[in-house]
Amino acid sequence: MAGRFTPRPAVTRTTVRGGEVAVPAPRPGTATTAGARERTYVPPGPLDLGLVLGPLRRGPGDPMFRTTPDGSVWRATRTPAGPGTLRVTAKGTAVHGEAWGPGADWLLEQLPAMLGDLDDPDLFEPRHRLVAASHRRRPGLRLTRTGLVLESLIPSILEQKVTTDEAYRAWRLLVRKYGEPAPGPCSDRMHVMPDARTWAMIPSWEWHRAGVDDKRAATILRAVRVARRMEEAAAMEPEAAMARLELIPGIGPWTSAETVQRSNGAPDAITVGDLHLPRIVGYALAGDRDADDAAMLELLAPYAGQRHRAARFILLGGRTPPRRRPKMPRWDIGGL
């Protein structure tokens, strides 16, 4: 695990396995954007930024996530210290982070965990040929751990029982309208999601304009009213964290798993109740295009403790059943 990060304005902190060393900060106006805090992290092995951070993106127009042609990943987020923007760039065997805003130091301290430093991929042992091939081709897959619950819980609630396009649209509209511009150089293109109080103040007609039905809106409102208790789950073991989230009416195993996969880096939090995943797993591992949750869990039993990671490799393997069912219909709840 990387050592604790103590930011100083005059230096870049370079983390190595076992300690940190200070190196001179770049001159203003060179590679660093003015006002940024910085950190360089050296991961313990191969690291693919797209695979690690990709699950945090909620659609191509996510106001809190973007990528740039140079391979950088940008995140705007609400940390315990306030809003912050993080830019992450892979440079050889190292990863360079720049952060802006009140949450900058918190984001840089959490950078190793976000990039999978607390994950242990060596515990995973492929049991199927397809999984082994996918595992071999993707050595840079590690499981992110953001340490933030609401930023994964709220969009997961929005994704309940609707198409991903509908959920992504709702997230995009609500964050842009009720969030705030991200600190730093992307303030005109990125937004930080609303705080708990702002979520609670969104009027009913705005939920409907975003395509969110009363049931999902009510679940989000119940969650943000106990936001502190929800965020505490990030420090719990995944099973306990899921149990904490499921105390909220409207949050079930699907939503809690989708959340702790990201907030807690949970390698065994397999998503049950999904419309597509059981069929994909069943078809990839057994040629069963009609597998249900029970069949999926039976097939994944050899991966106990690592079932979410196994599912990631299965999805990356690209072997999906032929489509035989119509897509889930779009529901018009507001006449829009």
UniProtKB/TrEMBL annotation:
GO-annotated biological processes: base-excision repair, AP site formation; DNA alkylation repair
InterPro entries listed in its UniProt record: Alkylbase_DNA_Glycosylase/TA, DNA_glycosylase
GO CC aspect terms: cytoplasm; protein-DNA complex
Domain of life: Bacteria
Renumbered residue ranges of the record's region Disordered: 20-39
A GO term for molecular function: alkylated DNA binding
Feature: compositional bias, Low complexity: 20-35
Keywords: DNA damage, DNA repair
PANTHER family per the UniProt record, alphabetical: DNA GLYCOSYLASE, DNA-3-METHYLADENINE GLYCOSYLASE
Protein name according to UniProt: 3-methyladenine DNA glycosylase/8-oxoguanine DNA glycosylase
Organism encoding this protein: Streptomyces wuyuanensis
Lineage summary: Bacteria, Bacillati, Actinomycetota, Actinomycetes, Kitasatosporales
